[in-house]
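FORM 7B: Structural annotation worksheet

SECTION A. Query
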Amino acid sequence: MNKTILLSSANELTLADRRLYNYLLHHAIHEIKKKLKFNVKFEELKGVYTIGLPLEDRLKESLRRLLRTLIEFEPTPGQWVVFPLLEHAKVEENKLYYAYSPYCQQIFTDPFTLERCLIQAHFQQKYSNLLYEILAGAFYAGLSSFSIEVPDLRSRLKISETKLPNFGDFDRFALSPALTEMNTYASFAVKFHTQRRGMKVTHVIFEMQEKRNISANTDPKSVIPPKRPRFFIDDPELERGYAFLLNAETTERRKYFELAKKRAAKVKKSIDEENFDRPDLWLDWIKHDLISRKS
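SECTION B. Predicted structure
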């Protein structure tokens, strides 16, 4: 199955929005072939926005953004379908009722397309989605290595001949940022090396290795940190900083993440890129910045 999937939205989804959506999808995925309507109690959503039950106003704001985010879907050449991440949602008596489009029964039963829907809303770099389409297609076809000529790769990333003509710039501004995002979110890890003819880079060889199968996960709670970090109990002010990170735009959270990585590196500690969406694991490195941040 090879369907083109693209998520588009006028508003950027926050980490909390995506965490909510991933929870709802994992909650539904094992039954979505049989039905399209589901519900969860607020109590099940503890930890989506910080600790405790979600505030109803904040939950509604996330649902508005999810309903405004569209899946563009090309089942076959010449066909185009567009529908929202959620078809509708209702909040009533501490319960969230939600439903999916019938088209979801087609796309969510395929591991490749399911993963694309789960992770594309994370992508911020310009070339991440296109590179993911290329490499995920190879990975899900059972390949662990994929070689491609540089002109062909540039063409498939829609980079003109006059843009980033030097391979060093192509790597710096296109390949590496896209691979950083892919390695954060995808089920497989990617690294690459090059093949040269003389001084010219002619091919890029991507090596792929399975990391985790996020599309096979049927435990909704796994997308939410399992327990309240100890330092929240000792420092309630820091909990507000954590809530800020969950609801900040990705670019803002990235600034704090890079600062945490830099400080950790100074004492020879490392913070894995995979933990970008787990701010509870690196919050301690930037807690003073968050506490002193003006609202």
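SECTION C. Observations
The first strand starts at residue 4 and ends at 8. The longest helix spans residues 167-185.

SECTION D. Sign-off
Analyst initials: ____
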